Amino acid sequence: MFDKLPISSKTERILTKSLDEDITVEEANHLMNIKGAELFPLLAAADYLREKIVGNNVTFINNCNINFTNICKVRCGFCAFGKDADDPEAYILSDEQILEKAHRAVGNGAREFTLMGGVLKDADIDYYVHLLTLLKDDYPDVSIHGFSPTMVRDACLVSGIDVAEGFERLKSAGLDTLPGTAAEILTDRSREIICPEKVSVAEWIDIVKTAQEVGIPGSATIMYGHVETLEERVEHIDIIRQIQQDTGGFTEFIPMTFMHEFSPIFLEGQSDLGATGTQDLKLYAVSRLMLRDLIPNIQVSWVKMGFRFAQVSLMAGTNDLGGTLGGDELSEASGAPDGVEASISTLSRMVRDLGRNPIERNSTYTEFYPVDE
Q1: What is the spatial distance between Cα 178 and Cα 147, in angstroms, rounded to a whole number?
Q2: Which of 93, 90, 98, 94 is nearest to 71 (CA)?
Q3: What's the pLDDT score for residue 272?
Q4: Helical H segments across the chain, by residue range
Q5: What is the pLDDT of residues 105-118, one digit of tens each?
Q6: What is the mean pLDDT of the chain?
Q7: How far apart are CA 111 and CA 64, in angstroms?
Q8: Among 348, 284, 306, residue whose Cα is nearest residue 44
Q9: Sign of CA dihedral 353, 354, 355, 361
């Protein structure tokens, strides 16, 4: 397949192997560092595997982000969203405001609420249970994809319970899936720079495994393009791969390129931040070659990439476009290039233009709804 292309013998050997079996960390590191024309066969291999594993369907979900507060006690160097409690722009949505947003979303066909916010100093499990109950009482058939490992860990500490009990209570109250947020980059060296107050790598692994053992599946993410090395990106993907081999609890893998323009670490003077376009494509492609059908769904975030580059990224091994969002204050604060809300028709047009099939899905990729022309 690759013998007539202008690539090195090592790259050809790795890509040929990748069509039939897992690649190693060392091989993935080699692919992360390729240049020039070697990019095209890498993308071709990833796209070939994507079609072999999931076919020509491109999925997305009609969902709504409900960011219930921007007050956050954890001040991460990459985040332009969080505020101190006394900041004039700080907010906590009331129950009425949350239900109003949910009502509008359901009126537009939403199948999922993404319930997120900053880490409140005194939030306990009872508070998160209240938010879940508030939404499930009115919309029992809408899935809730909510909170983060850091939020749950801290709420359990405030409540004086262990994390397993916390997840049991959240599940009983209606939490369906757990976002992969707070993963950022799973190396302690980088975390010490960008998010020293968040959970450590070992803690993050333990928390998501506990959620999955309780019966709450969820996303795996990577946030890249800040202070991490290319090797740390591969190390992160390999950690996700190892967890999935143990638990099978991840529904999707979501690479999220770092939007640096309004981030504290950029404004404080760190330069050379943000991934390049070829780095974005290589990360998608290498993720597909490493994860294969272990995590069959690899998502490109149109809100981070913009509609045009997200469409191109669907040719690099990805098969999911995330959600319609209904607003995303976190990405908006970071400078989302094409806004923070998409229509089903916009996403469908991107997919059909590639000759693929736009399909609405649910949170766990277990129910699918073809989109009419």
Answers
A1: 7
A2: 90
A3: 60
A4: 9-18, 25-32, 39-54, 95-107, 125-138, 149-159, 163-173, 188-194, 201-214, 230-247, 264-267, 277-291, 302-305, 307-313, 329-334, 344-352
A5: 999 999 999 999 98
A6: 90
A7: 8
A8: 284
A9: negative
Compare 337 and 186 and report the one with higher pLDDT.
Answer: 186
- Collapsed DSSP state (helix, strand, coil) of residue 132: helix
Return the SS3 of 285: helix
pLDDT of residue 106: 94
Q: How many angstroms separate the Cα of 128 from the Cα of each of 116, 119, 148, 225, 341?
A: 10, 11, 11, 31, 25
| Overall average pLDDT of the 96-100 stretch | 96
Q: What pTM, to 2 d.p., does this model score?
A: 0.92
- Name the nearest CA neighbour of 11 among 29, 292, 234, 237: 29
Q: DSSP string spanning 357-368?
A: EEEEE-TTS--E
Indicate if the pLDDT at residue 175 is higher than 60.
yes
Residue 336 predicted with pLDDT over 60: no
Would strands 112-116 and 143-146 be described as parallel, antiparallel, or unpaired?
Answer: parallel
What are the angstrom distances between the C-alpha of 365 and each of 53, 67, 127, 251?
14, 23, 29, 7
pLDDT for the residue 332:
44
- Residues 22, 290 contacting (CB under 8 angstroms): yes
- Residue 299, beta-bridge partner list: 320
Does the pLDDT at position 297 exceed 70? yes
**pLDDT of the residue at 119:** 86
Give residue 55's region: left, alpha or beta (phi > 0; psi -120 to 50): left
Mean pLDDT of 296-309: 94
Query: How far out from the chain centre does Cα 74 lie?
Result: 20
Whole-number Å distance between alpha carbons of 296 and 250: 10
Residue from 253, 264, 254 nearest 227 by CA? 264
Among 191-205, 208-222, 292-306, which is the least confidently predicted range? 191-205
185: left (phi over 0), alpha (psi -120 to 50) or beta: beta
Shortest CA distance to 369 belongs to which of 112, 153, 184, 195?
112
